[in-house]
Structures are given as structure tokens and as C-alpha cells.
Amino acid sequence: MSKPATEARLAAAAKGFTQVIGRGNAHIITKDPSTGKCCYDGQVGGGWHYNGDQETDTAWQAGTAPWNWQMVKANYNVFALSQFNQGQIIKWVDPGSGQYVTFQPMALQWTNNLNQIQQISMPQSVAAQVSDDILYWPAAYGSGRNFRYQASPLRLNKQLIIDSPSALPTTTYDTLELNFIIAVSSGVNIMVNGAAWNKKSTKDTVNSIAFQLPGGAVLWSFAVPTAYDSSGTIEGSITGSMRLKKRGNSLYVSVRFSKSWIDTAVFPIVIDPTVDYQVGASGNDCMWDPYGDFFSTYPNLNMGGRSKFAVRFASVTIPDGATIDTSYLSFRYYSSSGTPPVCTLSAEDAANPSQITSCSDGASRTLTTNNIEITSPTSGGWWNSDSLNTIIDELMSYSYASGSAMQFIVVDTLNSSYGAVSSYDHYSGYAPKLHIEYTEASTDLEPALIGGKLIFGGLTLNGLVGR
């Protein structure tokens, strides 16, 4: 979904909500001028607008030499070359500061703790196939080893897709390593584990790597790298590590994953060293289970499978006293196993809930009294929950006119079957969405004399006229 605000606006307009009355980082509010009713559409994530009120469009467009492709209708700009082995094929630019980072795909290889190397492939001479917001290079690292860049409103997903176990040569080494040469503009510091990298020594980290201006502002970051397989299960995902190093005059970042996970994975598998703009919104959806496992960067959210998950909408703007007419959550189907169970969907009973950061934190949250049953389908694309009206009516005792957060929590009954939906970290365009249609409370506070009765804000006062 390369144009989230546009698509939400057009869908609302088709129902009569043709007038835009509010815009935000991850929402748009429209109004039906004939009825006065309003509509809020929001999504986990952000980056719906740039330059104030311009609607983001992350589709790749023809570029200007030397670039073959560009994406410049968002809060960040990206420029790309078509040939995968052409060198620094991606340039990421912050339009406000002009600072940039470039990426050059390098070797895919096996390695071990002695830094011995068994090369699998260097980048091949393959031209990009372009589809909307995706640049895709089939066989970018040889047969069965494909690569794509997918631009979304707050992040650039860099994904190596390995089709089958036979696409990887046998080895005695224990780590798969994907390398990039990076170059940054002179005003950027590379921050590792909270400290500036000296661009000389080798640094390993299991945390994100931030690109920071001298004043401290973080422009973008390497998110913690994740690999995931096609099973859709919690066990089908693994967090990797990153290594920064200097070789000759070049700076390298290496993304590393354990071969032991690859040996048991369900193929195809995806190696995902994502780049976030201004740290993005990862963590506004998360999942945890009763065994102490917590996931805030997992590609899917399971309805079932012994899991609970939360989706948080950071800025929900509904005027005090509004009547909720229609409301639901929208999810994008990801995968399923067995017959998905009936789960319970509630909201967190709080005025402005924060992100959940651990299993114990999730267990400590107070839920609304009202809830609904929810069951994932076993196929398809986008689908909607049943009505959330009673839940949101309960939440309306808090003030959402200023744009406070709403957080919804789905609880499983410890069933091993599940239906999975896409998370923000799978692809931000497929992150969960919230839709609310509402009627504002009457604002007519001027008294009127009608039929000998005084009408004040809808309240009739008898016996006072003429005294």
C-alpha cells in the first residue's frame, strides 16, 4: 500500500465522507457535508503525510540520471540504480537536512567465529523488476537467491529471499552473513550501542544502529535484523546481529544469522535488515505468550497459537461526547495452521496507553469490560473485525479529542491452532488499521424560543418564559 492516506480518503469518500477536516502522521479524518457525520481512519505506523498535508506515495517512479528510479513523495527520499551489481545502488536522503547514506550490496557468504569465509555469491548482473513500491531482483545472488527493496511510508525493507535449502551450498560454518558497503555524508555519526563508531574498529551489536546528526537527532536507523520463514509460527522467526567493520577504504555492515535456525526453517525464508526513518513505529504492535517469549519486531501476529497480541494507534482524534456509529479493526491475512480458535478482543482501559514492552507488562494492563469475539480466516487479504462500538463507547469516558492512543489486545485460549495477520514489521502497508465513523455532539448552545418554550442546547425549559 504505497498511498495509505490517499486510499483511506478515497474509501471514505465513496461512503460520502468527502471533506478532509484533519490529517496526522498515521491518520486522516473526513466529514460527510450532507449529514455532518465524521470518519476516522488510522493505522499502526506512520508517515501518511509529508510536507504538512501532502499524501505520501512510495511507488517507485522513473529517476533522473544517474538514477534509474526514485521515491520522493514521502518524509524521506530514495534513489536507485537498476543493475544489482552496479555499486552503490541505493541512496537514502533526508530532505530536510540533505544528509544521506548509500548502500552497495556485497557478498553473501558462510562464516564462523574465526572469521573464515565460504563465499556463496557476489551480486549478479540482474536488472530490477518494478512493481509499485517494490524493486525486485530475481536471482540477485544466483539461482533461488532473490533480493528486493520495498519502500513504505517510514521504512525501506531490504529483503533477501531464499527459495529452498538447495539454494544454499553445504558448509561446516555456522553463520550466514549478508554484507553491504555503506557510505554516509559528513554530518552523520554512526551510533552503536549508544556510542559513536570510530569507523575503524570492528563492532558487533544485537541492537539497532542509529545514524545521528551532531545535534543528536536520529535521521534513520538499521532496525534489529530479523529472519523469518514461511510457517507463520513464533518458532519460525529469529533475531540476528550486525557487525560494523572497515576493510580498506570502505565501511561495511554485515547482517548475520545462525545456520542452526536455517536448517530447521520452512522455506522460502526472508532475511530482513530493514532501515527505519526516524526510528519508525515498530513496537506499536507486539505479541507475547505464557512462556515468557515477547516479540515486538515479529512479521505477524497470531490469533491463537498460545499467544496474545496488542495493536496501538498512537493518535486517535474523536471529539468528546461523540456518538460512535460504526467501528472495526482491519487486518491483513498472513498465514494459518489448523482451525483458528475464537479469541477475545478488548481495549486497554486507559486514557493514553503506552507501548507494551514485555510479557509481564502485557499481563499488567487493565482491559475494558466490553469485548468481542474474533476469529481469523484461513485465507484471503484484508478482513474486518465485528463492531467495536461497545468497546469504544466505554473508552469515550476518556478524552480523545487531543489525539490520545488507543490500544487493542487480542487474547487466545491457549489453542495450538492459529490464524496469523501481518504486523508493521512485515510491511507497514499491511499493518493493522482502525476505522471509526462518528456523529459529533450538538454544539448549539444558543437559546431559542419555539412554541412558547425555551430550547437551550437541546434541553427544554418549561414555565420560565415571561417571568
Description:
- This protein is mainly β.
- It has two domains: 4-33 and 37-43 and 283-439, Jelly Rolls (Sandwich), CATH 2.60.120; 55-277, Beta-galactosidase, Chain A, domain 5.
- The protein is 6% helix and 45% strand.
- The strands form six sheets. Strands 12, 13, 14, 15, 17, 18, 20, 21, 22, 23, 26 and 27 form a twelve-stranded antiparallel beta sheet that branches. Strands 6, 7, 8, 9, 10, 11, 16, 19, 24 and 25 form a ten-stranded antiparallel beta sheet that branches.
- The longest helix is centred in the N-terminal third of the chain and has 10 residues, at 4-13.
- It is globular and about 70 Å long.
- Mean pLDDT is 91; it is low at 455-467.
For the record, the CATH architecture of the largest domain stands as: Distorted Sandwich
Mean pLDDT: 91
Class of the largest domain in CATH? Mainly Beta
The portion of residues forming beta strands comes to over 45%
What is the percent of helical residues?
A: under 10%
Number of strands: 41
Structural class: mainly beta
Shape: globular
Instruction: Determine Rg (CA atoms, Å).
Output: 25 Å
